[in-house]
Amino acid sequence: MFRKVHIRLTLLCAGITAVIMIIMSLCYLYVSESGLYRNQFQSFQNDIKTITTNLEQQSVISMEWLSKMEAQGSYLFYVLDGGVPFLYNQLSDTKDNSTRSLLLEECRNVYQNLDTTASSAQSDSSYVSTHVEFEFVSESADAKYYGSVISMGKYTSSLEIIVLSSLRVLEQQILEQRFHFFLIDLAAILLLTVFSWIFTGILLRPIMENHRKQTQFVASASHELRTPLAVILSAAECCKSAPPEKQDGFLKTINQEGLRMSALVNDMLTLSGSDNQRFSVRPRPIELDTLLMNSYEAFDPLARDKSITLSVSLPQKALPLCSADPERISQVLSILLHNAISYTPEHGRIELSVWHKKEHFYLSVKDNGIGISDHDKKKIFDRFYRVEKSRSTKEHFGLGLSIAYEIVKAHGGNIQVTDAEGGGSVFTIIL
Ligand code: ADP
Question: Measured by CB atoms within 10 angstroms of the end CB, which terminus of the chain is less buried, N or C?
Fold first, then answer.
């Protein structure tokens, strides 16, 4: 289930970022390409201006000068004297003469269709000469050209010089730029996908862990509930066919197991409340020493039944008031005391203490019982964890310490377990 979610999240994450990146790349390419075309056209216009000035200074248009200009600027020149072809230079990017003538024809057609009065026609005051620059697509050469027609009135007959500049090189550059962008975007998308996979994996980890714990909790809870339920069902079945004098025994069993189930359900409800943030803690200023004495009085008879000595150690000076929920802290002390009595053999000792040090209050329950190994110390606060299932009595579900942990956590405090000197365990609540 999580694998599918992981894949979907990765695709979503990488997809959104890739779309944004592609849009930005396209915007950049648009701006950059328009700039390139604009610059190229401007430099073509400037070159035409220079060429016009040069031509005006020459008494005779020399073929050499034109071929030099062609070689330098990759321009193609056509000179028409009174509309008659005067000079044809070799066209470097057209294959045959017919193509050349077609190209020239196309350029002249475009020029004739231009509204030259509204176009960029320029005239120089000393000579009657004009030049117009424009862009056109040649169908015969299947390429884009910048064209310019320079009309000169310097000579006896009118001269028309047509200058063509192919955009092939620029278009090639633009194509290369697009290809580079495509490669960069592709690499970035791949990297993004890998990054999204790792990133969403990290995000999903706590959710997966939570889900695993929930599933485990439900499995353990069903398992724990099944035992008393099976006993109740079989006791009820036996009760039906038992003689009246034996029915009391079965009813007692049903009652006991019912109480056990109710205690388990209450514990589970407490924990599910803490998971859903519905765990209510109402702190108010309380005297922790009084609270500890109350717990001592409540558990002393139980300890005596097991011949366990329960004692309290209080500080000599009166403790300051502590902000805590007295019912909840008493519940934690009950869990710890109940465990201490359960896991301490007869004639053992349990000591309750409270002290205050540097803004913190400490409450501890120390026993000289069976103790807890270092390996188990890490796990005993987990739900349904019991060190040795066979060692625990029927009333122990392995939920007590997880409830205690949640209560102390809700107070912003901490609970720790350490080994007691000479054996046994010490549970310390820090508030
Ligand atoms: P349980 O209801 O089984 O006592 P807890 O969550 O309270 O569940 O405790 C978890 C486990 O920690 C217990 O099963 C027990 O093995 C161990 N444990 C808790 N308190 C003590 C203690 N004072 N001495 C030794 N073992 C303890």
Answer: N
